[in-house]
Every structure is written in structure tokens, then in C-alpha cells.
Amino acid sequence: MSIERLLQAQKQENRDIIQSLLDDGSEADAEYTIEHHFSSTNFDRLEKAAVDAFKLGFEVNDAEEVELDDGSLIFCFDAIAYHQLEAELLDKACEQLLQLAVKHKVDYDGWGTYYIGDELEDEDDEEQD
């Protein structure tokens, strides 16, 4: 698939994820931890991708080795950003990171975040009882 098609698919997925989070009651104006996922069977390539992601301004965690169901090993890391769930910000980041993945011949596996909603309010209510 061409990078243009990958980017179009990612942009649609960005909107779907944002809408799902908001539909579930996640806060629209909160700052989210956005984790962009990378993987590769080649550690050296992945390490170069991590350096470039850092240069783009992302926080980068240490690479981890993961054993797949078939017994093979891959390496993975997250490039992390902190911002609101804004499609334009996510689209820009995904475009940069997809290009980075193509450049280094590693896999960009999309992004994820955590629900931010009223679970903290519920905990506060329980503590007050």
C-alpha cells in the first residue's frame, strides 16, 4: 500500500478512535498521553527510527523485545506526545511518523491512549463517603 493510502486510512482511524473515546464519555478538553507504536525484527533499524522520532520532539521509551505467538522475536518502542484529542495534531504526527517508518523500514502500528473521564470523580466521591 502506498504511503498516501496508509495516511488516508490512518486519518480515518484517527477520527474513529477520537469519536469512540468521546462517545464513551472521555473528556474532550483533557490532555492525553498519545503513544505511537513502532516495531521491527531489526533492532538497528528500530533504534534509528527512535532517534529520529526523538529529533521530531517525541518522548521515546526504551525498546522492548517481544516474543510473538509463533516464537519469533520483534522489537518495539513508543513515541509519546501529550496533547488534546485533535484530529489535525494526530494527522500531522501520523504523517511524520509514517514517513519515518518508511525511511527506516520499520512498522508503524498506529497510536493509542487512555480513557480520561469521570472515573477520578467517582474515586473522589467514594473517598468522601
UniProtKB/TrEMBL annotation:
<dbReference type="GO" id="GO:0005737">
    <property type="term" value="C:cytoplasm"/>
</dbReference>
<comment type="function">
    <text>Globally modulates RNA abundance by binding to RNase E (Rne) and regulating its endonucleolytic activity. Can modulate Rne action in a substrate-dependent manner by altering the composition of the degradosome.</text>
</comment>
<feature type="domain" description="Regulator of ribonuclease activity B">
    <location>
        <begin position="12"/>
        <end position="113"/>
    </location>
</feature>
<dbReference type="GO" id="GO:0019899">
    <property type="term" value="F:enzyme binding"/>
</dbReference>
<dbReference type="GO" id="GO:0060698">
    <property type="term" value="F:endoribonuclease inhibitor activity"/>
</dbReference>
<dbReference type="InterPro" id="IPR036701">
    <property type="entry name" value="RraB-like_sf"/>
</dbReference>
<keyword id="KW-0963">Cytoplasm</keyword>
<protein>
    <recommendedName>
        <fullName>Regulator of ribonuclease activity B</fullName>
    </recommendedName>
</protein>
<comment type="similarity">
    <text>Belongs to the RraB family.</text>
</comment>
<dbReference type="InterPro" id="IPR016716">
    <property type="entry name" value="RraB"/>
</dbReference>
<dbReference type="Pfam" id="PF06877">
    <property type="entry name" value="RraB"/>
</dbReference>
<dbReference type="InterPro" id="IPR009671">
    <property type="entry name" value="RraB_dom"/>
</dbReference>
<comment type="subunit">
    <text>Interacts with the C-terminal region of Rne.</text>
</comment>
